[in-house]
Amino acid sequence: MSFLKRLARSQRVRSAAGSLLAGYLRLVWRTGRFALDPPNIYDYADDNLPVIFAMWHGQHFLSPFVRRPQYRAAVLISRSADGEMNAIAAEKLGVRTIRGSGDHKGQFARKGGVSAYFQMLEALADGETVALTADVPKIAKKAGLGIVMLAKQSGRPILPIAVATARRIDLRSWDKASVNLPFSRGAAVAGPPIWVPADADQVALEGYRRAVEAALDAATGRAYDIAEGRAEPELWSKETLARLEAARDAAAVTARPARTPASGQADA
User: Fold this and answer.
1) Are 130 and 73 in contact (CB under 8 A)?
2) What is the pLDDT of residues 161-194, one digit of tens each?
3) Where are the alpha helices (DSSP H) in the chain?
């Protein structure tokens, strides 16, 4: 094993890298001028906690700052070497970590996914918000069924979120990740929550999976539009709030089906 590989696997090096990442993200957030869209999102969120924060991989680095400090939250992070650094950063930013993921072949149990799935269900049942990237691992911008199953079995809504900055470096990685830069105009956007009924069958679940994809794409596009000055934040209308409440009431049931792990769960 080369010296560089041994160095990369050193716990001290990973810890230092995670601390540096957390510090850098704080710098980006504190020096940025971030608009919240809709401005009244917390009025809705406060009445519907806990929620499932859904993000696209590579666009999720600033997501810990979207939650209010009083929100208890956990984030799903893979067991990979990169995931170790991200986990350390998340913990330093006050977010508990759950380790595990699926893979692009849908083999959910290979990488700690089954255990992580049940941990997320338990966290939501205990009133803790859960955050995770919705992508099928290594397939950018394609949502897996795992997050939809999590919403179905927990009875909690999926809240699509996106954070973007005008100043950034767009990488050529598989997830087209963006490195947000300090002293930038930015936007934190939440799409309308998606409630998944407990009796949703496979056909319905596929529809909700596609709805998550569309909502994340819309939130991401709007975040860039606001950050780059092409749009301004808008309040959710009374009609939108009434529609969301109706969807919540329709999804509410007194009994949930037995908990079974979903295949294709993405990692954060």
Assistant:
1) yes
2) 999 999 999 998 888 899 999 999 999 999 999 9
3) 3-8, 11-31, 41-46, 81-92, 113-125, 146-154, 202-227, 238-251
pTM: 0.86
Cα 162 to Cα 72: distance, rounded to the nearest angstrom:
19
Which of 78, 57, 63 shows the shortest CA–CA distance to 25? 63
Both tokens assigned to 42: 């917390």
- Spatial CB neighbours of 131, under 8 Å, sequence gap ≥ 6: 52, 53, 54, 55, 60, 63, 67, 73, 74, 75, 76, 95, 268
- Reference 128, options 91, 48, 74, 63; nearest CA is 74
Question: In angstroms, rounded to a whole number, what is the distance separating the alpha carbons of residues 181 and 192?
Answer: 27
Question: 């595990």: which residue's tokens?
Answer: 100
Q: Do the beta carbons of residue 162 and residue 106 sit within 8 Å?
A: no
- Does the bond joining 192 to the residue before it have cis omega, within 30 degrees of 0? no
Tokens found for residue 238: 């009374």
User: To which H or E segment does residue 99 belong?
Assistant: strand 96-99
From CA 59, how far away is CA 37, in angstroms rounded? 16
User: What are the structure tokens assigned to 50, written together?
Assistant: 């806990």
Three-class secondary structure of residue 147 per DSSP: helix
Q: What pLDDT was estimated at residue 254?
A: 37
Report the relative pairing of strands 135-136 and 129-133 from DSSP bridges: unpaired
> What average pLDDT does the segment 36-46 reach?
89
Rg (alpha carbons) of the chain, rounded to whole number: 18
SS3 133: strand
